[in-house]
Amino acid sequence: MSFKDVLKPFTAWKNLAIEPVSIKKPLERQAAPRYRGFHKNNLEKCIGCGTCEEICQNAAIDMVPLDGIETKEGDSGLRPMIDYGRCCWCALCVDVCTTNSLTMSNHFTWVDTNADNFRFIPGAENKPWDNEELGYKKPENYELNNPYRVEMVEIEPEQRDKSFLEIVKGFSKEQAIKEADRCIECGLCIATCPAHMGIPAYIAAVRNDDMEEGLRVLYETNPLPEICGRVCTHKCESVCAMQHKGDALSIRWLKRYIADQVPAEKYKEILETENIKKNDKKIAIIGAGPAGLSAAYYLALLGYNVKIFEALSGPGGMTRYGIPEYRLPYDQIDKDVDYIKSLGVEFQFNTRIGKDITLDKLHEDFDAVFAGTGLHLGRSTRIDGSNHEKCYQAVDLLRDVADGKSINVEKKIVVIGGGNVAMDIARTLARLQNQKYGKVQLIITSLESEDIMPADLEEIVESREEKIIIEPAWGPKKIKIEDGKIKGLHVIKCLSVFDEEGRFNPKFDENKKEFFEADMVVEAIGQGMDLSYFSEEMQSRLEMTDRHKVKVDNNCQSSIPWLFVGGDIVAGPDVISAIADGHRAARGIDNFLSQK
Known about the structure:
Number of strands: 20
Largest sheet: 5 strands, parallel
Number of helices: 21
Mean pLDDT: 94
Shape: globular
Distance between the termini: 80 Å
Helix content: 25-40%
CATH architecture of the largest domain: 3-Layer(bba) Sandwich
């Protein structure tokens, strides 16, 4: 290397003294139709997922708030701002966009002496190219990641319709990693999940084949991963950014995959809960359902002495006594519960508060009480004949099945209701019919038309696969009884379920009638709470909401200071919301007792 070569880089310093020049009239040229020019963004289609920001290798994109764009479920409220001092026009941001809202114009010249103007939010500043059609768009059928979910193996209908074996078999390692690889880590799911689980983090653990890390992430916010990995309402999936280009990620099944891979005996070692520092405070929990179990787990971690009182013979609440074993096997419930027991949580079964022990006695013996008693009472249509001995409540029958009691199933059955409980009891009874009679003769009828039935689509599809007939948009009128026996159900056509303001106010056409033959009728039109364990004096002190739920604050503390309440009797039937309530209540109880 010559001496001149050594000095040559230093000659560039002379440019510091040169004033920058803007060419006011650059050479005008027509760009190709698909030239990659300045960006455009459809602000209404954009959901602020931030994949464009993540993929940009030049850090040219920042997600920023924008006036008029509100944060809501499935939309972060942020929009991309692009810095053209950094942008290299590679178009990866366009190619990865989940909603196809981000495109590029074919404009490539822009004259301005203010460098700050070259950092702007596409779609928000009325640029001259905003409404022009030319420019780069993601090519059709071109995706950087797989838009469609990996399907899990299920038992075929003809193999499952006489059996209570679990239908969904779970992901293999290869399937789980392939599905996890679809996650773009936008985090929209975290905000929507009632427990605010670290969903992208545990999916990343699956992708990295690190089940121990995945389990640690799960237990930060959810101590019932086996239960929740099977029957969670997966609200997170309803806002998954991937659904805009194909299928939402199988978030629930990936949660199940992690829990299924880790043996129960390794939990304490992985979660590092062997050295909990105990205190002398005692907490009573009423109900061993998801809310009570969650509260017990987090209180145990905080060192409290926790005892759960359960009216039934086993733990799990409605997850055991309201969900059939083909959806949620009992041994998976026990796996979650056994770990909570291992932390020192005590259980007292077959003990009904208000009958075997009063609530006042719990208050006297314990420092605080948490109630998560669920919705165990069925609601009746109260139509003529609904008080017949062969007209049952779905929740009662599901509980009897879980307890191993014999059900005198009839040859022809009608189930009234369109939700998941209706599907659960119908599919349970259809299995028992098949075992007893060798065929299924069961009808589900609901007020709702099929497009607004509250049951999950998979439940409706699988019910039909199991030879159940679904008759939507009919209102029950009267149960026909002859010689003391049920003969069937008279129904009339339901024209609408809700009025213009969204209130329940069904309208019927009395001239359109139908009759469904049946020897047995099951009502599955909703569930109610049983607060009979509260004395009259306590009920007078307990504040209720306008929707007839127990009123609590953000810490699940009721109007009775020592009483914390959560789960279905606060928020309605939802496993993950109940788990979140239990976690909040544990923090609330800890704060309450710390201030005493």
